[in-house]
Specification:
The complex is a heterodimer of chains A (123) and B (494). Helices cover 73% and strands 0% of the residues of chain A. Chain A has 123 residues and is mainly α. The longest helix of chain A is centred in the last third of the chain and has 31 residues. Chain B is an all-alpha fold and 494 residues long. Chain B is built from 20 helices and two strands. The chains are: A mainly alpha (123), B mainly alpha (494).
């Protein structure tokens, strides 16, 4: 039990990961899919950052009286990953706007139906 | 200057992109993109020569020594990939001028060139870097620019194709970064060479195997490993012609390189191949890709989608080499990166010319009727590249299949030889559909006069087609380089 409780950050990570994947797969609305995608990416931030922190650890500056240091590298990596996530989300939203302009809908099944209708007369 | 070649390989196209956006002129944009592509080819060849002469080149970016800083590391394997990517770029960039002018609105064209440069920088970066997290960053640089390039396609379907690729591509990259995170937790390093050494002493294998699973699925999505290829046909079919040719020839190949790098040099191959059914899984997925998507291609109406499905099948041949896992088959895998790259590049470049002349946004196989009359050189090029796709002796495709079959025989997998031959026959059938339409079917409309694609498009396309034949006869670079890369993979050291 204490094993499970001690690793609570991992449980949150796994929950976010699976929830994000579920929204991505189960929802037909293009905006909601992006919400799922962002959730999935956020779970990764936690996966990296949480193990970098040591209880009682300080910033890695060598000084008298401090022996345990937290690892700063995961934070830097995730700073990059956050930028990537923001760029992906921005591009995804921009494409959704363009899809709305072109199709008049952001529901996946309606868009696919519109494409099918457009393809049929061409046969 | 010369010792900075590894950094320049990525920096040149990376600088070209913002310059293009600042100048906002489409002629300058095209000139800058072409110059950057040619510079990349020169740098890649320079690097390959240096690797052949002096062995692995290591470059400490910003003079931070590895494993602390980011290391660029060029060996026989990625020198080969760098040459492939920049060779394709050097032929696609001059082609782009006329093709893009016809397919993209004038005020968006300079943005296309900027995205193309970013995509090139990303792909070269994935290949050259020796840092696991840096691969993720470059993967996203190339992917994000690729989504934009696809969305610039002339039909509205391009937007949906781009959106679907964005979702699946980001899931792939996220899975990859989860895998790298687990490896980082286990080893405390991101440098691939350093990680490889530390992974060999790891006792608790479960997190390592979880990382392997995440990386395999993540990169499998990016390289369109069957059945993770759902994004690929639409992405290829609806993007602008020049973009299709560029990403079909390079993007999936670079992802295959990442997979090879992780399977053979980063992870300890012994537990992966001995304790897990890795060989069986790769052989099963590859055979499924070769058979199923070839059959889909056989019944596809749209020409670009037909060849897109054929791409998934061809990626099956590449991953088959990983499953068979010996020197001959891995040589076949690596050389097929190049051979399939130039073959598919040639086909899509030629189809771009057909699209320009027909003026239609989508081409059915039937619309190629009479092509042999209207565009004899283009039709002839399609036949030659088609031969290479099938693997007829004297073309690049034959070399690959030869080595794959040698590898399969070496393992005693005779049924696999039969599958390779059978899927080649399916390829004969779908290439024949195109040839039949081009030469034997009369055009519906009044006899069109001869109208080849403009020379700026025809010359790069035919040059790429000539490469399909060149690499079928002169194999000292292609097979020689691939064999060295395969030996390096099997030694398992970087």
């Amino acid at each position: 039990m204490s094993q499970i409780a001690a690793h609570y950050s991992y449980w949150i990570t796994i929950f976010l990961m699976v929830a994000g994947m579920y929204i991505l797969i189960a929802r037909g609305n293009l905006m909601k899919k992006l919400v799922g995608l962002a959730t999935l990416q956020t779970s990764v931030y936690l996966l990296y950052i949480a193990p970098g922190k040591l209880i009682g650890g300080t910033a890695p500056i060598v000084a008298e009286g401090f022996a345990t240091y937290s690892n700063p590298l995961p934070h830097v990596l995730i700073l990059t990953a956050i930028v990537v996530g923001v760029a992906t989300l921005a591009l995804g939203l921009a494409i959704v706007v363009r899809i709305r302009e072109a199709y008049g809908s952001i529901e996946e099944d309606e868009i696919l139906a519109l494409d099918r209708d457009a393809a049929d007369p061409a046969d | 200057m010369l010792e900075h070649l590894p950094a320049l390989q990525v920096v040149v196209p990376l600088i070209a992109a913002p310059l293009i956006v600042l100048v906002r002129n489409r002629r300058f944009a095209w000139l800058a993109a072409t110059a950057a592509s040619w510079a990349c080819l020169a740098i890649a060849i320079g690097l390959a020569l240096r690797v052949a002469e002096a062995g692995t080149v290591s470059y400490a970016l910003g003079s931070w020594p590895p494993p602390w800083g980011i290391e660029y590391r060029v060996d026989a394997l990625n020198a080969f990939v760098l040459v492939l990517v920049s060779l394709v770029a050097a032929l696609v960039a001059p082609y782009a001028w006329t093709s893009v002018a016809a397919e993209v609105e004038p005020d968006r064209q300079y943005l296309l060139y900027a995205m193309y440069c970013l995509c090139l920088a990303g792909l070269l970066g994935i290949a050259i870097t020796g840092d696991a997290f840096n691969i993720f960053v470059f993967l996203e640089i190339s992917s994000l620019s690729m989504y934009v390039l696809i969305a610039l396609g002339p039909q509205r379907k391009a937007l949906v194709a781009s959106y679907q690729y964005l979702l699946l591509g980001t899931v792939g990259a996220t899975f990859y970064v989860i895998g790298v995170g687990l490896l980082y937790l286990k080893t405390g390093t991101l440098n691939l060479a350093d990680m490889s050494e530390r992974l060999r002493t790891v006792e608790e294998l479960r997190p390592v195997l979880a990382a392997l699973a995440f990386i395999t699925v993540g990169i499998g999505l990016k390289l369109a490993l069957f059945p993770l290829h759902q994004w690929l046909p639409n992405a290829y079919a609806y993007s602008p012609s020049m973009v299709t040719a560029f990403i079909a020839a390079t993007a999936t190949k670079v992802s295959v390189y990442v997979l090879l790098r992780f399977y053979f040099t980063v992870f300890d191959p012994a537990p992966i191949f001995e304790r897990l059914p890795t060989r069986e899984v790769f052989i099963a997925l590859s055979v499924a890709a070769m058979v199923v998507t070839s059959l889909v291609a056989l019944f596809e109406r749209d020409v670009k989608r037909l060849f897109a499905y054929s791409s998934v099948a061809q990626i099956g041949y590449i991953t088959l080499g990983i499953g068979v896992d010996n020197l001959a088959s891995l040589t076949g895998s690596v050389v097929h990166l190049l051979n399939h790259g130039v073959t598919k590049g040639a086909i899509f470049l030629l189809l771009g010319g057909v699209a320009l002349r027909s003026g239609a946004v989508s081409m059915s196989v039937g619309s190629l009727a009479g092509l042999g009359r209207r565009m004899p050189l283009t039709a002839f090029g399609l036949v030659i590249a088609g031969f290479s796709l099938i693997g007829i002796p004297g073309t690049a495709g034959f070399i690959t299949k030869w080595y794959l079959i040698l590898g399969a025989i070496d393992r005693g997998l005779w049924w696999l030889v039969a599958v390779i031959v059978a899927t080649s026959l399916i390829a004969v059938a779908y290439v024949w559909r195109v040839v039949e339409a081009a030469y034997l079917r009369p055009a519906d409309e009044a006899p069109a006069k001869r109208a080849e694609a403009p020379l700026t498009m025809l010359v790069p396309a035919l040059a790429m087609t000539a490469l399909c034949v060149y690499f079928g006869f002169e194999t000292s670079f292609s097979v020689g380089g691939a064999r060295e890369a395969a030996e390096l993979l099997l030694r398992g050291v970087r």
